[in-house]
Design brief:
The complex is a heterotrimer of chains A (192), B (385) and C (255). By secondary structure, chain A is α+β, with helices and mostly antiparallel strands. Chain A is built from 3 helices and 11 strands. The radius of gyration of chain A is 17 Å and the shape is globular. Chain B has 385 residues and is mostly helical. The chains are: A alpha+beta (192), B mainly alpha (385), C alpha/beta (255).
Amino acid sequence: MKQALPLLLAVLLLAGCVPPPARVDSPHTEAQDKSYTIDLPVGWIRHIAQDGTLAASRDGFALQTIGIIHLGNDKAFPKSKKAASDTMLPSELAELQIAEMKLETEQMAALKVIENGPVLLGGKDGFRVRTSYLTQRGLEIHRVTYGAAAKSGYYRLEYISPKLHYFDVTYPDFQKSIDSFRIAGADKTAAK
Amino acid sequence: MPQNRLPRLLVAAALLACAGAIAAVDPYADRESAKPGSEEEQRVWSQSKEFAEAIRKSGIAYPDPPLTAYVQAVMDRLFPEFGGGIRVQVIQATQLNAFAIPDGNVYVNLGLMSRFQNEAQLATVLAHEGTHFTHRHGFRSQQSLKGNAAFASVTAMLGIPIFPQLIAVSSIFGFSRELETEADNVGYQRLLRAGYDVRESPRVFEHLAREVKAGDIKEPFFFASHPRLQERIDNMRKLSAKAAAGGDGGSRADYARVVAAARVENVEGQLAAGRAKSALIALEDPDFLSDLPPHSQYYVGEAYRLRGEDGDARKSEEAYLKAITASPGFAPSYRALGVHYLKKTQYGEAVRNLRRYLELAPDAQDRAYVQQYLTIAEKKQGGNP
Amino acid sequence: MHHWQRMAGVLLAMAILGGCATQVRNASVHKSVSEQSAQPMPRKLLLLPIDIRVHEISAGGVVEKVDDWTAAANANANRSMREIGQQRKLFDLAETPALSAADKEVLGQHVALYELVANSADFSRSGPFPVWHERARDFDYTLGPGLRDLAGRSNMEAAVIVIGSDYISSAGRKATMALGVLAAAFTGVAVIPQGGTAFVSVGVVDLRTGNLLWFSTNRSQGNDLREEAQVHTVLERLFDEYPANPVTTAANAPK
């Protein structure tokens, strides 16, 4: 019984009114706020946080995580207190996203940018950034971040995994999810 | 209240609650004697070694052997009887921070290294941090905290034990007032003995206090709160009030040569982390800027662009143009200017600068962006490329 | 900290607390082994350095790793592993051979990865969510084939990795637990030690494929890993479910 209270607190903290984690049997997934749709990899396990953040993993969040978050443009970069806008150039959005990641923890200050380029994400001009960092045990973690800003807000999709073995194994699943991602109401707006 | 400040404030409160209950132990006299004096102290050293190993493995040490050797030499000059037993490492972090851990490892952030004006100022901070080690402040603080129930609650909120409490306390909040004052006093004597110009001692803290104030910096580290920083200034002013002129380490130019590459690295790190205001505090100082390479007006331009206040767009354009004049072969200035003109719908100028960037940096990581922007500018320009 | 990292931190806290509430002891067998009953577990196992850390939690909640206690726990586990292997005729243990710096680096990276794999496997089996339990039944956790060359050079098929922790607590520590869980939500860091909780996990890794052939954990209240007899008891329980034992080869799912 002594453990019951903290466990209950944890459950309340995590769960709130969100659905319990579930296996992805049908890939098509719609955001809680209906702002986007995406196909998640079948067989992975999906968690939804109270704020609508979607996270999915096949083997465990430490081994691979796909995360999707939709934020208001004015709350896109809370650490640096910067806003996103659908008029920003993709490189400017990427720059703000990299800064945000570098501000996450002291360790992330040494984050290395491996690739950085423009993409079309969910029908909007956006960016794709691949970064890497080391854990305290010296294990190299790679992180691929896609981002785009629309009038309806800032969309960030990420894939995080240890470079050793895991990154390459499940990256194609993430790429399929990226290809399926659609922002509700977004036109195909290639670079103007 | 921002949620990440809450744990810090609670720990600060806990530290205040336990101040004054710090057990005295004899300081280490030399390298031979610098060992754990008890099983309890051994635990603290063991924790420190793991922390040092985590720093090494996580790749955040700044990889510049000549700079590391230089900083180590200053520490050895201050603590000759410890003969290399106090090991200094520069960390790739832009905050104004330095800290010592109980086994004799001292860490100085690149941000702080970059902002010292001369070697005597560096020596002031190293003498202070070295004293935290020689006087076993980490161990003494740990002992006083072990019985403090309030501390248990708040350290849990910092995610301990992954981040050892000891390190959290010494690096984030500083030690108690009593131990900080001891580090000031003993450190000052070290500076005198080593022949440094002790008049620089208050100046380093005054100079940094101005930066903290001007930049509205709320760093969670060495200069965490104004009262603590003000205590350092007051102490150092008192100590050096009757100091005679002279002493070593006052040359700005000598120090600038040693940290030239580190300063550029730090400015780039500040800009990459979006810390434009912090970067501008240094970059708007003509003396600081004159010590940087000729293309450094590019960083000034980037800092204004990122800050984005009224008039900053014009200032950034001027700075990019100055950078191109001073260093015509430095590619990033052309990209920055090209993007600036693209946003101002000056497409001809945009095309000219973006093309020049791609000529000078054909393998640039951001080539795809620039190619995309060039295509847009060419289309808008209405003519063929 | 990204949202999903914080989410994962809270999940891990829940798994730890859930595990603490009852004594969890079970084993999982890699499906490549369990699906082919003819495939024997390797006989000769490379014993990688045992990493059991024993800490003391002070009245004020300060957690300190104690080197002497840690050394004692590791020596206890080393002796027990040998005895269990010989007495039950399960395996012969060999110490890690002298390795080049490059091989040491490769091995170190894989041990770091193993910790993440073991945590993930443990969470899927022992965490609070049934959907993850289902995932654990299809047990195919792996480190990948990165150790194949090392296996060839050391002439070893498989390695056994023992990790664990023990928190020797003083009174009053438990009162901080509730706050600690809340802290996990703030920080995403969710390892909250509780006095008296001993945790040991053992994994057997096929060095050629990286597959986690067998994995078992024991999380218990009241076992003190500084004591040789208690370490032996914990490890014996774990190896009750080793595939060579016909009674328990089917024990592949969380209970």
